[in-house]
Every structure is written in C-alpha cells, then in structure tokens.
Amino acid sequence: MPYRPPSVCVEPGCTEYTLPGKTRCKYHYKERKRNTFKNASYTSKRSWRKARDVYLRQYPICENCGVKESYVIHHIKPVDEGGDIWDPNNWQALCRECHEKLHGRMK
Q1: What is the pTM of this model?
Q2: Fewer CB within 10 Å: C terminus or N terminus of the chain?
Q3: Domains plus CATH for the chain?
C-alpha cells in the first residue's frame, strides 16, 4: 500500500518534511515518542501503584471538595512542566469529579 506524499511537519515552526505515513518530521517524531514514554509509563509501574495506594490511604477524602472519597493523585505542578513525579509534596488526593474539573474535562 503506498504512503501518502511527504508533507510539512505539524509541529509549530518546523519546516521539515514528515516521515512516510507520519505527521511529524524525524526529529519531532522521536522527541514526542521519547517524552510520551518517559512521562506516561510511570503509572503502569508497580512502584507507582504502591506509592499511590499508600498516599490515598493517608488522604482518603478529596483534598479539594472534602466530601467524596479520593481516587486520583493529581500532580500540583504538572510533570511536563518540571514537576517531580515522585515528590509527595507535589501530590494532591482528589475525587474523579474534582480531578476532571481541574483539567477542564468536565462542565
């Protein structure tokens, strides 16, 4: 099956052509893949699940609304903005509803 013809990379300001069948140039494709793996893979690790469970046992009620049971660890300073994944001072135990509101996914 033929690939679509090369186009310009979708990253703002980049004028390089894309890899065959991709939307990003060689540099941005590798960079995005590396950053996605580095930042997102910690949630599947046993050590993260254990740390999360311990923290949620210490803070069983949502730290935002103070009513519902906490379910999610929210990073106060986002990891992609330099927040430390493993620093409990950067964590906040939230219920699902408060977490969704903080991220603007809920009306």
Answers
A1: 0.57
A2: N
A3: 1-44 (no CATH), 45-102 (3.30.60)
